[in-house]
Amino acid sequence: MPTIKDVALKAGVSATTVSRVLNNRGYLSEALKQRVYSAMEELNYRPNELARSLSRSRSNIIGLIIPLVSLPFFSVLTSYIEQHAYLNGYKLLLCNSQQDKIKELEYIDMLRSSRVDGIIMGSHTLEVEAYRQMNLPLVTFDRQISPGIPYVCSDNYTGGQLATTLLIEKGCRKLAHIGGHPELNLLSNLRYKAFVETARQAGIWHTSLHTDNNSFDVLAYERLLEQLFREHPGIDGIFAGSDLIAAYALKACRESGRRVPADVRIVGYDGTALCSLNHPSITTIRQPMEDMGRLAVELILKQVEGMSVPSANILPVKLQEGSTT
């Protein structure tokens, strides 16, 4: 197995220079870097990542804990986080918590043992103290844990306003919101708050149905939609807490003989591919998912470098009108 000394001999440089190339330290000409890389390729040399991380007290690995990677929003977000981590020389260690507290704690222990440089949290089953005890650079999605822990989210309140206002402007007079439980400590609940306040200010009748504490139980949304149309058959506008819920609402309308948008208008939230894949295409509030992924990585890297970062990182949303309104 070739060593760093073999690479140095092949490239005609010192072992220290090879180490500097591997760790991107100091000024190095592109020609010299290419000579070292060519020598590595010819010798099929692979650096020992563990030894490198121990020597520089960094692993260049970011941990990501999310509730369900199969959900469209988290799958797209994960892809962007991985992309921007990689562009910055970092690898991603993905953990799928499935909203299980024990599993989430086990993943946190594993990530700390793996010497990750920071953790991005998209799962929120633990109490605040559990996050504070991590003693690692941390960024959360859609949850404000404490002033010292930065979070990234879209402008949920404005998104809720845009969705509800659009339904009212389209002539809807009996509105419903379907989403996660409003008592959960999630910033996404501002969508529901905006829905209520906007409908109330316009004098529009409104109701809401929510899941239990597992806000990602998609089967529960089918039951809620059946309940909604059974208890309130005159509903003519639905603001769904995600594009996935909006797709279920579209399915429920079709199965109950309701025409969209003639009888019921629907607005989702996220801006995933689900919107264009459905027929009719779903009107949604688009979150800037690539910007959110990039920003989460940037906030971790700045903390790794010892820099201070803002606690609140709220990105703007846009109304993307499809054919359901």
Structure description:
The chain has helices at about 5-10, 15-25, 30-45, 50-55, 70-85, 100-115, 130, 155-170, 190-200, 220-230, 245-255, 275, 290-305; strands at about 60-65, 90-95, 120, 140, 150-155, 175-180, 205-210, 235-240, 265-270, 285, 310-315, 320. β1, α5 (about 70-85) and β2 form a beta-alpha-beta unit. It has a six-stranded parallel beta sheet with strand order 2-1-3-4-5-11, sandwiched between helices. It has a six-stranded mixed beta sheet with strand order 7-6-8-9-10-12, with helices on both faces. α1 (about 5-10) packs across α2, α5 crosses α13 (about 290-305) and α10 packs across α11. Helix content is about 45%, strand content about 20%. The protein has about 325 residues and is an alpha/beta fold. The protein has three domains: about 5-45, Orthogonal Bundle (434 Repressor (Amino-terminal Domain)), CATH 1.10.260.40; about 60-155 and about 290-315, 3-Layer(aba) Sandwich (Rossmann fold), CATH 3.40.50; about 155-285, Rossmann fold (3-Layer(aba) Sandwich). Keywords: DNA-binding, Membrane, Repressor, Transcription, Transcription regulation, Transmembrane, Transmembrane helix. This is LacI family transcriptional regulator. One of its GO terms (molecular function) is DNA-binding transcription factor activity. Pfam families: LacI (PF00356), Peripla_BP_3 (PF13377).
Number of strands: 12
- Assess the beta-strand content as a share of residues: 15-25%
Tally of separate domains = 3
Radius of gyration: 24 Å
Q: What are the segments in which pLDDT stays under 50 over at least 5 consecutive residues?
A: none
Strand order of the largest sheet: 2-1-3-4-5-11
Assign the structural class, choosing from mainly alpha, mainly beta, alpha/beta, alpha+beta, or little secondary structure.
alpha/beta
Total helical segments: 13
CATH architecture of the largest domain: 3-Layer(aba) Sandwich
The string of secondary-structure elements, in order, is: HHHHEHEHEHEEHEHEHEHEHEHEE
Integer average pLDDT: 88
Query: How widely separated are the two ends?
Result: 64 Å
